[in-house]
Amino acid sequence: MPSERPIYPFSALVGQERLKRALILNAINPRIGGVLIRGEKGTAKSTAVRGLARLLPHITVVADCPYSCPPDRPAMMCEMCVARLRRGEELPVEERPTRLVELPVAASEDRVVGSLDLEHALTEGQRRFEPGLLAQANRGLLYVDEVNLLDDHLVDVLLDAAAMGVNTVEREGISVSHPARFILVGTMNPEEGELRPQLLDRFGLVVEISGLTDIVGRVEVIERRLAYESDPDAFVVRWRQEEEALAQRIIAARALLPAVTISRGDMAAVAGLALELGVDGHRADLAILETARTHAAWSGRARLTVEDIRLAAELALPHRMRRQPFTEVKLDEARVGQILDRVKGEIGDEAPPSAEYVKKKLTA
Where is the AAA+ ATPase domain positioned along the sequence (predicted)? Predict the structure, then answer.
């Protein structure tokens, strides 16, 4: 039986720096809220997602748990594992790679969230639950290709689970909940239809990508792909050192992340940026700060810089800015930098902006 072909290395991708940054930041901190990758066919969207999954560290799980519960963290366990612990049972433990779960476009709701056997519950008085894809994805990466072609209700369910870290299934007054903490990545080709703005807003980050436009970059893509197709194993070995270095850096950033502090000045700078750019709601402010602190950890720092906030804004703002029907919003990145420099310079690191400051900026 032929062996499975190795995955194309993440570090071997040419260009697409913003795409790679968004994926890595979500791998470090799933609380960012996932990433939606929008781009035309053949721009390495799926290749990047599958390559990222191979960089994620192995996890320790309860061996016979369908939700991959961590054996040493009761707060993140399912009801069954908690009950076993309370009975004094020794949980079987194993280490395995972080899962990549791919959600098919044609998947039914029961296949995604899981199904309840109502007849068994009524006749036997016991809940019987068949876990779905969200159970498999717990503590892993959930990849939804062509997310714009999914039913809106299913997209809502995915985004709710990603935000809450819990999947709840209710049927005829019977309810089952289980942990569903995962890195959510969606990809789509805008030519095949758009997501509703309400759903778009709930993705933490959105990246617009296109094919490379310089000859040197396109030639490099061709050369690397031909080398991979010719001898996948040798190609993977060639990139092993870069892959290991990237994986270790992700682990280090995860460890540093809890120590990264956000000052009131950072919060005020982000709030001022959102106000001046006319962004509705508060999701953008929170997404920018969560992304910025993650980028600081990725850079090996425990404090934010203006550059962290600027890079975060590039990923978290464009899809949330007000737009006219049938028009595309482009973020003026130079203006973002100017606003942040000015606001940080005016308000410093401690005090939030005054009401007078905000009023003056909004009416200028």
Answer: 31-213
